[in-house]
Amino acid sequence: MDKFPWWNETQKKLADEVEAFADQYYPDAEEAAWRKQTPWKVLNAVKEKGWFGALIPKRYGGMREELAITGACIINEGISRLGVVGTIYGGSQFGGVHQIETFGTDEQRERWLPAMATGEKIGAICITEPPVGSDAAAVATEAKLEGDYYIINGKKRFTTGLGIADIYMLYARTSQDPKDRAANRHLTAFIVEKGMKGFTVEKINELCGGDGLLNGYLNLDEVKVPVGNRLAGEGDGWTIMMSGLNVERTIASSQLLGQMKESIRFAHFHSQRRVQFDQPTMLAQTNQFKIADMIMRLKTCTLLVYYAAHLLDIGGGGPYGPVIEATAAKLMTSESYVWTSANAMQVMGGDGWTRFYPVEAAYRASKVTEIAAGTSEVMRMILYRLGTRLMENEIKPPRRVIHPELKVPLDYFDKVPDSEKMKITEESVLQVLAENYRVNPGLYMSREDLLMYLKGTEEELDEVLMELEEKKLAVLSRDRRGVIKLRMPPTPALRKPTR
Ligand SMILES: Cc1cc2nc3c(=O)[nH]c(=O)nc-3n(C[C@H](O)[C@H](O)[C@H](O)COP(=O)(O)OP(=O)(O)OC[C@H]3O[C@@H](n4cnc5c(N)ncnc54)[C@H](O)[C@@H]3O)c2cc1C
């Protein structure tokens, strides 16, 4: 396992320890997968190591001070070589431990964390519902306050670890007010515990991969949950969910690193020993290149994952935490895992497609990583929307000016001095719009673009633009609320002398 220079000594030692652990328990995990059983023998050994307490402070029986998110990722990278052991381990970290540790009161931490640190109690996360998937804010499960209890009704689905988990980190709607919905204050986070009356497993899913993993539907029928099981305040659910998702995506990505390595291991092992055309298939450069690309992807993903983990550990990453880094890590590792397992199978030929080598299980398991914890499309939506917003300064628009001799646009990033700005008039606006046509033909100008060259308020500008629109000298574009967004002169205005 790679060890990064910023890791502490405990984390570096842990990397060796967890690799040796995975080597030792590999056949046990394979046996459980063949039997389609929860790998309890291996999970119990993970518990004995105390690794379930990676995110839990010492005072509650954990090792957070030495291990933290980076440590949880090291553990998960190592034990994910052991089939679904990593999935269950990761699910517990971001299905309760992180949220209780970060948002719980001292009393709540005292109540749940010691048993989660030893692994006696395992956590699970409940966001998804039959009608609610990618649009997580649409959670419909309802919690109504009645005295000292919330009464929760609804259904959750695709919950990983259901049945074996004891602590369910569950999000429910506590407000139907559209204003709360608009402000993302409509959700509340609860710890729902196994055994609460009305909280039952409805159905277990038959999965394409993840042999031995329990995943399915949960039913909540008038479940009485004490107010003391609410994390933070009413309406704080969305903030908690988002914070949890950065941790979930980082830890879940670390899991894929171990699984990618198994694909590389078996592709390499097989192709060195398989002889065709009188030479090992490894000598075929097409196979070498595939393995080279697997290593390139693995190394890139490893850096991304541990950088995101480091940012989480130091509280870095900007106003929303390391959301870009965690999202990029999730997207890159899941797509690389799908690619790596498919290509490892290709390198191994028919053998790769049989169940007698672990690559087949990796191939089946890989696909879901582009779906669970947010689909690749949702990751791209986040990266586009938030990424472009957070990188606003780094990708600020250029001011394009025609070079007097070359007659081609050059790009400037300075500001037009106020003394050179023109007063807002019909003539000056048309002049700026016509100049824009020369440097960006076909592109509209935004209000901000225009005000780079003009002196005055947005209202003054809008007034002049509407006058020009009426005279058919400008084309305006408006958003859904009717606010003027972009404007461009129609072709006739371009023929009007502007200077
Ligand atoms: C094995 C497994 C384990 C899981 N574990 C858990 C768990 O422990 N806890 C939990 O809460 N959930 C869990 N999930 C649920 C998982 O997070 C969701 O499946 C995922 O968020 C996608 O939701 P969906 O399946 O309803 O797909 P949908 O939201 O219905 O999406 C279907 C397709 O449409 C695309 N799509 C949707 N909207 C848009 C849009 N606006 N723009 C572009 N594309 C769009 C999606 O990307 C996807 O490709 C698990 C799922 C699986 C399969």
State the gist of this model:
By secondary structure, this protein is of the alpha+beta class.
Defining traits:
single chain; 499 residues; alpha+beta; Butyryl-Coa Dehydrogenase, subunit A, domain 1; Butyryl-CoA Dehydrogenase, subunit A, domain 2; Butyryl-CoA Dehydrogenase, subunit A, domain 3; 4 domains; 4-stranded mixed β-sheet; 4-stranded antiparallel β-sheet; 17 strands; disordered C terminus; binds flavin-adenine dinucleotide
Termini separation comes to 66 Å
- Supply the helix-strand structural class: alpha+beta
Instruction: Supply Rg.
Output: 28 Å
Described by strand count, sense and barrel closure, the largest sheet is: 4 strands, mixed
Indicate the low-confidence ranges by residue numbers.
492-499
Q: What percentage of residues falls in helices of 4 or more residues?
A: 40-55%
Cofactors, ions and other ligands in the entry: flavin-adenine dinucleotide
